[in-house]
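User: quick one, fold this
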Amino acid sequence: MPVLPEFSLSGKVAVMYTAGGGEAPSVAQALAEAGASVFVIARRQETLDAVLTALGDGNHSGTVSSLASHPDLSAVVEAFDRQYDRVDILVNDARSFFAMPFPDICLAEWDELHSRNLRSVVILCKAFGQRMMQQEYGRIVNLISVMAERGVINGSAFSATQAGLLSLTRSLAVEWGRHNIRVNALGTGWTTAEDISLEVQREELLVRYTPLRRKGHPTDIGPLLVYLCSEACDYTTGQPVYVDGGLNAHP
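Assistant:
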């Protein structure tokens, strides 16, 4: 991906949290190709291995953590501090999907999903956002789903976590703008990392419903992510920006 000079992340250190999924390697690659050193926090070892393999050589590292407790966070911060002395960028991708009729959801499942998708982001924003405030610079990007602003059958629990992330994004943008920190959300629609022909994709109803009539690919979000993480993103904050093939424009 060619990078314009004003969008360069050269010399920047990025923390990237991922709950998993096919987008993670491409998201990390976009940051690295723009020049950033990437520290990856993954919920599972296989996810971390896949992302670090995609990153290849460079000043990149990572750790596995579910961020379920304070000791878990302390271990993450210690691992980060062993290699880096500042943090410029925080990218949170905590979109663990969950679908179930609302009456069938037990409170334990509701709480677990909110812990994965929302509480984990709160924890990381507190830990690394405080450092950004001290250095008077930072870029935070929270990846969200179009379901942050849409209601769908069987999607109440997941949509609630995404709406919470969007609200957190807007609130932190207002609160931390005076510290030269920009906080935005990057929204995606229906994506796949698989190589599926357009003819096969368009056999699916949701693809035909999407204005651009294809699923998104992880590489679609890279250019916008780099912009939102760059110094060029100086007057954009508190915004959800969707790369969804026009899906969210539908009534």
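User: anything notable?
Assistant: The chain has a mean pLDDT of 91.
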